[in-house]
Write a structure and sequence with these properties.
The structure is a single chain. With about 425 residues, the chain is mainly beta. The protein has 2 domains: about 10-45 and about 60-95 and about 215-415, no CATH class; about 95-205, no CATH class. It has 4 helices and 27 strands. The protein has helices at about 80-85, 95-100, 150-160, 345-355; strands at about 10-15, 25-30, 40-45, 55-75, 90-95, 110-115, 125-130, 135-140, 145, 170-175, 185-190, 195, 200-205, 210-215, 225-230, 230-250, 255-270, 290-295, 305-310, 315, 325-330, 335-340, 360-365, 370-380, 385-390, 395-405, 415. It is globular and about 85 Å long.
Length: about 425
């Protein structure tokens, strides 16, 4: 009696620095079964004009394709998907002092940051880091207001790593001129250089609190990907990918990597050989879509219910060499949102119906409600007609947008924050 071959599979990946296939070593975490589907080039063969009969085809394996779709959810540890993000042509830059501090200190000015376990009632523009409750706020004419996530994470890191404690006051200066009378611990921003004064000299700072990813065509990377089954291994070479992220408020954020690879070879085990060993990347805590700030161009808030962000990578096969790889030749990010109308968000809902542009910031947290990921879309413009829907008796709408660029490669950002 024949023994059935199980359809279970695992995926492995590794960065591919050249055109040549590299044996993958890193396990990929997947939540749905990955079944490979090899595709071959079909060449039509026409019958002779003197003969009858139907057209026929032959298939070429020289540039065989191996499409692979990896479905999962965002996890608290980004490491297992770093290579996948790379091959989506998402470049990265560190979120550190040089990234964060200019956001709060304008060029040619300075502010004080006060680390205290009680409200110091400081002057407007200064920042209070509550060392007792680990909150960060800025003093304004209307009272204390919350700072942005990246600013909060930076100053909390200063507290948790012991750099500044209760009772410390730090002056942050932004400008090309060296501060005249700095105190120990003061910070000086000079362009992209951030330094701290130790009492006698200025020393470079480099405290990273996360990584920002953004779409670009100038840093496309490729990978080798294997789909390993009990008796079969499909080797993919020169892989690139598209990325789609979806989520609902207070629900998991799901990811789909739609990879395109060349089929390097298929390996089938001999009948007497033991099964391949299958393993996945270790699953860790999943991510929840916690907070959403969506403002129309008129400044009205939208009651976001769900979202779908698609990078829209244009992927084409390179048949001009023996590499049998793929390239990302363009991208056109799109956004689909589901919104709910309430009395508080009626103005924003009306703006949606009127197809006004908006900006969006989605904060994704772990189960302890600590920030882990953030999607920032500076400008989204109307793409398709609004669809009004009924949801358990409530009025919802679904609408499609394009993610526009405002200043360079900023169609959207995907930020990842380290644990603080």
């Amino acid at each position: 009696m024949a023994n059935s071959i199980l359809s279970k599979s695992a995926v492995k990946i590794v960065a591919q620095p050249s055109d040549a296939y590299v044996t993958p070593t890193k396990n990929v975490y997947t939540e749905e079964k990955v079944l490979p589907k090899s595709e071959y080039t079909k060449i039509d063969v026409k019958p002779s004009s003197l003969e009858g009969g139907m057209d026929s085809e032959v298939f070429s394996a020289d540039f065989a394709k191996l499409p692979i779709e990896i479905k999962s959810s965002l996890q608290t540890d980004i490491a297992p998907i770093e290579t996948l993000l790379d091959i989506c042509s998402l470049a990265s830059t560190p979120i550190n002092e040089a990234f964060v501090l200019p956001l709060i200190v304008a060029s040619g000015s300075n502010i004080d940051v006060i680390f205290a376990d009680a409200d110091p009632a400081t002057v407007n523009g200064n920042i209070w880091v509550d060392t007792a409750n680990l909150t960060v706020q800025v003093q304004s004419a209307t009272g204390l207001i919350d700072v942005s996530i990246e600013v909060r994470q930076l100053f909390l890191k200063y507290v948790t790593d012991g750099t500044y404690a209760n009772g410390s006051t730090v002056t942050i200066t932004n400008g090309a001129t060296t501060p005249a009378t700095p105190a120990s611990g003061d910070i000086w921003i000079n362009g992209s250089t951030v330094q701290s004064y130790d009492g006698s000299a200025w020393n470079a700072l480099d405290t990273q609190i996360g990584t920002r990813r953004y779409p670009t065509l100038s840093q496309t990377k490729k990978a080798s990907i294997d789909v390993v089954m009990k008796r079969l291994t499909f080797q993919g070479v020169g892989a690139v990918s598209n990325l789609t992220l979806t989520g609902e408020i207070d629900g998991r954020v799901n990811s789909t990597f739609s990879c395109s690879a060349g089929l390097n070879k298929t390996i089938e085990l001999d009948a007497t050989a033991p099964d391949n060993s299958l393993s996945l990347a270790t699953a860790n805590e999943f991510i929840v879509l916690g907070l959403a700030t969506v403002l129309t161009e008129d400044g009205n808030s939208i009651g976001l219910k769900s979202f779908e962000l698609n990078m829209g990578n244009v992927i084409s096969q390179d048949k001009s060499s023996e590499s049998n790889g793929f390239d990302i030749t363009d991208f056109a990010p799109t956004l689909k949102i589901g919104a709910r109308m309430t009395k508080d968000t009626k103005a924003g809902f009306d703006d949606l119906i009127a197809s006004k542009a908006f900006k969006m910031e989605l904060l994704m947290v772990n189960l302890a409600k600590k920030p882990k990921y953030r999607i920032v879309i500076p400008k989204a413009t109307y793409n398709e007609a609004t669809s009004l829907e009924d949801s358990e008796g409530r009025l919802n709408c679904t609408k499609n947008y394009r993610c526009r660029t405002i200043n360079g490669a900023d169609n959207f950002y995907l930020d990842y924050f380290l644990d603080i």
